[in-house]
Amino acid sequence: MNTKKLGLRELHHELSRRDFLRVAASAGAVGAAAVMLGACGSDDGKGSPTSTPGIVVDPPPETTTIRLARTGAMCTAPVDLAALFLAEEGFTDVQYIQTSGSDHGARQTAAGEIDFSPSLMAPLTTAADRGDPLVVLAGIHPTCWDLFAGDRVQTLRDLKGKRIWVFSTNATEPGYTFMATLLAYVGIDLEHEVEFVSLGPSEGVSAFLAGTVDTILSFEPISTLLRNQNIGHVILNGMMDAPWSQYFCCMVTGNKDFVEKYPAATKRTLRAILKATDLCAREPERAARYLVDNGITTFDYASTLSAVMHLSSDAWRKFNPEDTVRFHALRLREAGLVKGTPEALIARATNWRYLNEIKRELGVA
Fold first, then answer.
1. Predicted confidence (pLDDT) per residue in 105-139, tens digit
2. How many other β-carbons are positioned within 10 Å of the β-carbon of residue 40?
3. What residue ranges define each of the domains in the chain, with the CATH number in brackets?
């Protein structure tokens, strides 16, 4: 990607024409089976989901066909990289389905068009509350977005009375549900204390540059581009600022019917995705090179590597994903977008069995 210094007009063209439009649309806001701990190509398997302290023999997958979401967003790279590991898990027909919306495939997963997706937690919460047949299986990485604002806004609380850009105010639209979570956390009423402005990516960029909306919710590598061009300033860094950095953003989500019908295939798919997540954490250069060389991203290698390195991809070993579901359910209930209790949502739309089995096999606490 061309990162030369651009003027505002050229930056607007660059963002809306290429990177911003593509990443914003996929992110929903603004945007070789080697094991990982040893040397590249090592097969000792220490510390990766390919091996266990004891001997565990899983049954073969009930189906050898698997369909995964392809979003085009860098934050979902582990699902793309899972292709490196799915063959050894017994899958002979691996299909990647391009997502058609900004929710990272949650709607298509619920509809049975995709078996597994790296769905964004905020809109996933409202979809699950609505009763969509989705099952959350594990977290992939913590929050990975930045909230940029204009000069009138210095903190989240300064958003009271301001104009906030979203694609739409649909309860499952990622930008809207992310902002609803943020606003509820600081006690701002969605209905009466902010104005949501529904615009497409190009129009939203124009509005922010013109100062007619006050925020851009952005993901890597667009965030780095905005920083380099001094466009706005970051009032919240989801990767660094608590509590957002303590919760998952993208979650491995399965179609409920698939998960119930094919338990062995579900576990094997999740294990492949976790192997790929470890690859991002421990060999980001290799991960970035695979994404670029296989045309999964149109960003250049440097931008792709930067985006992969921004992800805290070892968090699946440390964080409790149920905490993430509970946090978002509470905030979105406060915002009026979720009706059920966190406990009801967790009971209906999560299944930690496979994650816990994989962790036990690894000796991960």
1. 889 999 999 999 999 899 999 999 999 999 999 99
2. 12
3. 8-29+145-245 (3.40.190.10), 65-143+251-362 (3.40.190.10)
